[in-house]
Write a structure and sequence with these properties.
alpha+beta; NADH Oxidase; 4-stranded antiparallel sheet; 10 helices; 9 strands
Length: about 290
């Protein structure tokens, strides 16, 4: 993934936008977006991904009809729709989150507002647009548009209810060598900024289901998924969104590391940790070059 210039600034400034101006995206910009997102084919696990930008223009005001969002999103100029085979291990969902967040940051760099939608829309309508292949699913979509100058009361309430501006502290998310020793910023050194961008990553219901263990001897950052007790996506009829959230965190980490000029790669290298916290499982590691 090619780093975006000023990635850290974009990550810090971006917020979810649910209310947009009644303003179409110009055709030349639509072409640029369409060309760009067609290049996002895989993630750390190499899953095959497909993305499509569906936009409304002045001459085609009906483009978005049928893509229901239950009134949560107002005046969207378009949607980014993605499809993936989740895979038996769910690695496809991690790749999906990784690639889709890359698109979100690209759109933010263009001055466009976005919002992740992972359950507040009729998936079948979006799936029809993608002509899904066998075993593919649409885990989430992104609404896109020019942010309204004044958010609606509903949007302000939703941000408050979801604690969108609140993030877990470092000592809850990042650890050194095991899950018993919190990793301090001074110990993270030149990677402190990348981990802070992981901390600021968006997630469904702001759960922040990722945990990172820095193995100092091997210079590896091990990413884990820590689920919330009682969360059953199959009962809710949605994709396994925590895995998508972990992919978002991986994107933020690699994007920031790449902008800083640090080399490394994603590898399967689970650390030897005797006791993992409940509901915690290994995902992938970043090996420092």
């Amino acid at each position: 993934m090619k780093p975006i210039k000023n990635a850290e600034e974009i990550i810090r400034n971006r917020t979810s936008m649910r209310t947009y101006e009644k303003r179409p995206i110009p055709p030349d910009l639509i072409a640029k977006i369409t060309q760009k997102i067609s290049r996002f084919h895989n993630g750390p696990f190499g899953s095959k991904l497909r993305f499509q930008f569906v936009a409304a223009t002045e001459s085609d005001s009906d483009t978005l009809k049928g893509l229901g969002t239950y009134g949560i999103i107002q005046n969207p100029a378009g949607f980014v729709i993605g499809a993936v085979d989740p895979g038996l291990s769910g690695s496809g969902l991690v790749d999906f989150g990784y690639a889709m967040e890359s698109i979100v940051l690209f759109l933010a760099d263009l001055g466009l507002g976005t919002c992740w939608l992972g359950g507040s829309f009729r998936k079948s309508r979006f799936a029809e647009r993608m002509n899904l292949h066998k075993d593919e699913t649409v885990p989430a979509v992104i609404s896109v548009g020019y942010p309204a100058s004044s958010p609606r009361m509903l949007e302000r309430f939703m941000r408050y209810a979801a604690r969108s501006n609140s993030r877990k502290p470092w000592e809850v998310l990042f650890f050194r060598n095991d899950f018993h020793h919190p990793l301090f910023t001074s110990e993270a050194g030149e990677y402190a900024s990348a981990l802070e961008m992981v901390r600021l990553a968006p997630s469904a219901s702001n759960r922040q289901p990722w945990r990172v263990v820095f193995e100092s001897a091997k210079r590896q950052f091990h990413f884990f998924l820590q689920r919330s007790k009682g969360y059953r996506p199959e009962k809710l009829g949605v994709a396994d969104l925590p895995r998508v959230d972990v992919g978002i965190a991986l994107c933020h980490f690699e994007m920031t590391v790449g902008e800083a000029g640090f080399s490394g790669e994603w590898v399967a290298a689970p650390p030897e940790i005797n006791r993992l916290p409940p509901l915690t499982s290994y995902v992938v590691s970043w090996k420092v070059a």
